[in-house]
């Protein structure tokens, strides 16, 4: 037994030497085999179990490593292996479990604090994460300081982007492209797009410089690393309205086939938003990239939510009503207070011509979520206007108390009531808004009650509206209030005098004394300079004295003008002064008393008319033997007179055209001949 024990100890020592050598060389697969042999000798060896967990983690077998930890809980206590356990849970995307493991550890080591910051970032607890990284930077001094600063800047960028927090200046020196990139993201969150673009261009330059120093890095590797920077550049272009440039850059990134599924999902989503209801086939292909495995662990909650919203909208645009309802209902269950799911459902109902049901759905949501009722009611009003129920739309808008006094709302309501010719309601809207501002100003100034510019503007608009619709007496009080606030306002005084002149002329005369005199109102204008200025439509000719020669020329031109005669009008070529012109010649043919209309149903005689072999023309006309030898037939009665009278035909402009039908037939023949060109 003693010999066997010594032999086992010697074998274990050799295995530990192998484990140590493999660990230093990074060959964790061979190290794991040696550790397993050690565990066969002593299955509860704590050091061997720890080494096995580390080897599995280094090989990427996080699930197996966590299984070893959970199997040997008696030996591997939380104090011994807390970091490894939390790290395995973090890599398996069990973020909440990782947080509990870290918090349950009795001793918070630097490794656990680093991991704690990562876990808080994934949980989107940015304030706690910021505090954790600040503490780490303050109390750590090692070669990982640059990485900690990069993580700190990423937290600040996330706060600016997702929580709209104005970031504080951390005083970080942007010496790396990662820091420049995070700084650009923070600027995008603040809406400073031009500054953000410059930061991204600097980040691209630093990235190229950093990677080009490594001879093993190819141009393709550099482009792959730059993909995320270019994606953010394209996003800025899209926000600036340069959609064509953004789309081109997005497609270039997709062609590179980056391995980051999160980046691909975001780019695909942004392309879908550019396509909207156009190029739906391309959008359906791009949406597949958003369904890739692991996307949900790469993006923030708001990014994932935006992708789901766009999926629902795409289903609506592609007429997949059931899919649209399913996606929007799922979104509503996840975020009951969010507006977009219910708006998408209402839009789908409107596409199905169920406007009443859509309004009912929106009303239910407004009742359940009063905080979001304003935007919902605006949509309801829009639907009512689309249905032609303008008065009901006005009622819905007036029920939004927080917007009643806004100038835009007042303008919209007044316009809609004017369209419905409900002037009293329009004036009531003005009155309520003016009263609100009076009460607000009184509460803010403790009774001093000065009028704000918006308040005065509303009073003026109300007065103009009342004057326009003949409410002179009601407008007078508003104009007097305005004149009281600014007695030097001549325009208001003129309006007030004009209104009083129709109601109380004596009062108008009294007020007219306050108008400035004509001398003070006159403007010194150089008339000649004004007439000679560019764009003058009329220029007065300067009067000058004429010399002898010029005067004679002017007189000669005047004589010539007097001698000019009017040209005689042109007469028709066949005009006959002896014939009285047709009195109806200026009227269209259809309006003349002798117009009988077209004779329908009669066609010209044609050779091929009738049954096969028959002819419509007389045989005497077609018999060639009779044309030369036969004596001419006697003319029909009146035919000779018609031929002899050709020289004395009265032109059709001067008499009633007896041959009008024949003229029409000739025109029809010409049209038919022209129609043959279609062959």
UniProtKB/TrEMBL annotation:
Domain named Signal recognition particle SRP72 subunit RNA-binding: residues: 541-597
Regions of compositional bias (Low complexity) in chain numbering: 608-642
Signal peptide limits: none
Bias type Basic and acidic residues, positions: 573-594
SMART domains referenced in this protein's UniProt entry, alphabetically: TPR
Residue ranges with Basic residues bias: 561-571, 663-679
A GO CC term attached to the entry: signal recognition particle, endoplasmic reticulum targeting
Coiled coil: 95-150
Location of the region described as Disordered in the Swiss-Prot/TrEMBL record: 536-679
InterPro entries per the UniProt record, alphabetical: Signal_recog_part_SRP72_RNA-bd, SRP72, SRP72_TPR-like, TPR-like_helical_dom_sf, TPR_rpt
The UniProt record lists the keyword Ubl conjugation: yes
Subcellular location: Cytoplasm; Endoplasmic reticulum
One Pfam family here: SRP72
Family matches, as Gene3D superfamilies: Tetratricopeptide repeat domain
Keywords of this entry: Acetylation, Coiled coil, Cytoplasm, Endoplasmic reticulum, Isopeptide bond, Phosphoprotein, Repeat, Ribonucleoprotein, Signal recognition particle, TPR repeat, Ubl conjugation
UniProt-listed GO biological process terms: SRP-dependent cotranslational protein targeting to membrane
Annotated TPR repeat ranges: 227-260
The UniProt record lists the keyword Thylakoid: no
Transmembrane segments: none
GO molecular function per UniProt: 7S RNA binding; ribosome binding
PANTHER family the UniProt entry points to: SIGNAL RECOGNITION PARTICLE 72 (PTHR14094), SIGNAL RECOGNITION PARTICLE SUBUNIT SRP72 (PTHR14094:SF9)
Function: Component of the signal recognition particle (SRP) complex, a ribonucleoprotein complex that mediates the cotranslational targeting of secretory and membrane proteins to the endoplasmic reticulum (ER). The SRP complex interacts with the signal sequence in nascent secretory and membrane proteins and directs them to the membrane of the ER. The SRP complex targets the ribosome-nascent chain complex to the SRP receptor (SR), which is anchored in the ER, where SR compaction and GTPase rearrangement drive cotranslational protein translocation into the ER.
Protein family per UniProt: Belongs to the SRP72 family.
Protein name: Signal recognition particle subunit SRP72
Species for this entry: Vireo altiloquus
